[in-house]
Write a structure and sequence with these properties.
By secondary structure, this protein is of the alpha+beta class. It has 4 domains: 5-108; 115-238, Beta-Lactamase, CATH 3.30.450.20; 257-361, Beta-Lactamase; 406-630, PPM-type phosphatase domain (Phosphatase 2c, domain 1, 4-Layer Sandwich), CATH 3.60.40. It has 17 helices and 21 strands. The strands form 4 sheets. Strands 12, 13, 14, 15, 18 and 19 form a 6-stranded mixed beta sheet that branches. A 5-stranded antiparallel beta sheet has the order 2-1-5-4-3, with helices on both faces. The chain has a 5-stranded antiparallel beta sheet with strand order 7-6-10-9-8. α5 (159-173) runs parallel beside α6 (180-188). It is elongated and about 210 Å long.
Length: 636
């Protein structure tokens, strides 16, 4: 029987060591016997030898086993150290992977949080929310703490919308689903589901979103949940609705526009035309689209138009572009010509050049214009006649006013009159009733022009010196009181007679005594500048003439040097460029200004002040003024 190499080597080593140990033990035994003086007996020697041999062999075996054990332990230690090192390397690699995973997770969370305008929500298979980024918080108003692990996307979806989508899934895809499963049914089958949904914010406000739902799977392809990414499209939907409304409105405007509107490309082909454009040329809109624009032109424009287009596109030379209101001829479908007014503009969009034309049929307008020109010539002729008549009427009206050479004993007088038209509604008069009495009247008829002038002429006739209107019914009074004069005019000129009213100031002065009786019917109160510098308003009276209301009068006594100013409202309402009126204060300042105190000096200063105040010397109302200065010792 052959022994394995290892066994042979072991036996050889044990035998070699055993022989050495036996020799040592036998020698030791012999030495012991020798020293003891005892001769060994064969049996003793055999026993000693056998025991020594056994002991030597056992000792050799034990020692050899110890060495083998030490070498085996050394080999195992080396192997264990290698395994420990390998394990440590794997642990180090795991730590590196875990650190890299932490970085990736941090990057992912950073991306999720950075998407502040995009809602990113992840769920597990049952729908419980596991990820709720800052964009979802901004969009929905919920916090991540409120949602993660506690809610499903059903929380912020309209229940009615989910139920409606159940029918869509059933009818279009044959899928039965309810609740959360409606949201992920297509994603669960591996499809990418993108559609519009309504989100309900925490505050109850609805918003429209575009939601994309996909399935989440692990490395082995097993479904682990779902991911929903949503963006707010409320503004986009609003803009789309506004655009649709704008387009519908534009289409309605184009269809109802009176003017023809069309677009043409650089090849001269009509791209679009509205109903009005089609009607002008006798086509339907669809018949014009795609037709060359030159079909709508008579010669020579039909032949020359391509060259006009080339000149504009290459050289920028224009004939009608940007020159709105140009008259051009057009050619109808039946070959007849039509007069058009054309405006063309250029639209550049996305590298494409289009021309927009707006045209109007002016055939009737041209005919009307010719008729109008004929009528205008006739009207101008008639207007010239009217102007001549008005000039004559103005001259006649001027003769009804006091003349510059009139003189009153005891009274310094001056006046000014500037009608806003050729003839005006203002009238005034200053005349002697007898040797001791003088009368002054100032009338302002409402309105401007011929009708008020005729009424003022009638009043001038009624208030003429010697008229029965001035007769007094009281024996002790030489003349009727001013308020009685106004009352009589109320009866003669009611509002319904002429559909006009007038204001009036009437006064009678007894020159020797300075006794002044007056009445004011809705007229600006006369200003009395006393010789001592005091200023008073003569405001006793009543409303304007024509309303049928009673009038009242006043009495005062003038002192020598007192000045009285009568004026119409056109003076105080005269405006400057900023619309500021001259006003009563302006009248007072001019009256009290340094300079001559004679009546003519006051009137001259007032004319200059009004002319300087107004934007131009074209008053919007008649301007009339009378200045009376009481000087009882003067004589004509």
């Amino acid at each position: 029987m052959r022994h394995p190499p290892y066994t042979s080597k072991f036996l050889n080593r044990v035998l070699a060591h055993g022989l050495v140990y036996l020799a040592l033990m036998l020698g030791a035994s012999a030495l012991a016997y020798f020293l003891a003086g005892v001769s060994p007996r064969p049996v003793s020697f055999l026993v000693v030898g056998t025991g020594s041999l056994g002991a030597a062999i056992l000792l050799a075996v034990v020692l050899q086993r110890l060495k083998e054990t030490e070498r085996s332990l050394a080999r195992r230690t080396v192997a264990l150290e290698g395994a420990v090192k390998h394990l440590q390397d794997e642990l180090d690699e795991h730590d590196r992977d875990r650190a890299e995973l932490a970085v990736r997770n941090a990057e992912l969370h950073g991306v999720l949080d950075a998407a502040s305008q995009v809602s990113i929500i992840a769920t597990d298979q049952r729908g419980t929310i596991t990820v709720f980024n800052s964009g979802a918080e901004n969009l929905l108003g919920f916090t991540a703490e409120e949602m993660i692990g506690k809610a499903t996307p059903e929380t912020f979806h309209l229940a009615a919308e989910i139920r409606a989508h159940e029918d869509v899934l059933r009818q279009e895809h044959g899928i039965e689903a309810q609740g959360f499963e409606v949201l992920v049914a297509l994603a669960r089958t591996g499809r990418h589901d993108t559609r519009e949904w309504t989100y309900v914010r925490k505050d109850g406000r609805n918003l429209q979103v575009e939601l994309s739902v996909t399935a989440r799977r692990d490395v082995d392809g097993r479904l682990i949940g779902f991911l929903g990414i949503a963006v707010d499209i409320t503004d986009r939907i609003t803009a789309q609705e506004a655009l649709l409304h704008s387009e519908a409105k534009l289409e309605a405007i184009l269809d109802t526009a009176v003017d023809g509107i069309f677009t043409v490309d650089v090849l001269g082909i009509i791209r679009s035309a509205n109903l009005a454009a089609a009607r002008i040329f006798g086509y339907a809109p669809e018949e014009l689209e795609g037709r060359p624009l030159t079909d709508l032109m008579p010669e020579p424009h039909r032949t020359l138009h391509p060259q006009y287009m080339a000149n504009y596109l290459t050289l920028g030379v224009t004939r009608v572009i940007g020159k709105g209101g140009r008259e051009v001829p057009g050619r109808r479908r039946d070959g007849s010509l039509v007069d058009l007014e054309l405006a063309v503009s250029v639209l550049r969009s996305g590298g494409e050049v289009l021309f927009t034309g707006i045209l109007r049929d002016i055939s009737q307008r041209k005919a009307d214009r010719e008729a109008l020109e004929t009528a205008h010539r006739k009207l101008a002729s008639r207007q010239a006649e009217v102007d001549r008549d008005l000039s004559m009427a103005a001259a006649i009206q001027q003769t009804m006013l006091p003349q510059g050479d009139v003189c009153f004993a005891g009274l310094d007088a001056a006046w000014s009159y500037h009608p806003s038209r050729i003839v005006g509604g203002d009238w005034f008069s200053l005349f002697a009733l007898d040797g001791d009495h003088a009368a002054a009247c100032l009338v302002d008829v409402s309105g401007h022009g011929v009708a008020p002038a005729l009424v003022s002429t009638s009043l001038a006739h009624a208030l003429r010196p010697g008229s029965a209107l001035w007769d007094s019914a009281i024996p002790e009074e030489a003349f009727a009181a001013p308020e009685e004069i106004l009352a009589r005019l109320e009866r003669e000129y009611p509002l319904e007679r002429f559909n006009m009213f007038f204001t009036m100031i009437c006064l009678i002065l007894h020159i020797p005594s300075g006794r002044l009786r007056y009445a004011n019917a809705g007229h600006p109160p006369p200003l009395l500048l006393c010789g001592d510098g005091r200023m008073e308003h003569l405001d006793a009276g009543g409303p304007m003439i024509g309303l049928g209301l009673p009038q009242q009068g006043g009495v005062l006594t003038l002192c020598e040097g007192d000045s009285l100013l009568l004026y119409t409202d056109g003076c105080i309402e005269h405006q400057d460029e900023d619309g500021v009126q001259f006003g009563t204060e302006g009248m007072k300042q001019v009256m009290t200004a340094p300079g001559g105190k004679e009546a003519k000096d006051v009137i001259k200063r007032l004319e200059e002040a009004l002319r300087a105040h107004g934007a131009s010397w074209d008053p919007e109302d008649d301007l009339s003024m009378i200045c009376l200065r009481y000087t009882p010792i003067t004589r004509c």
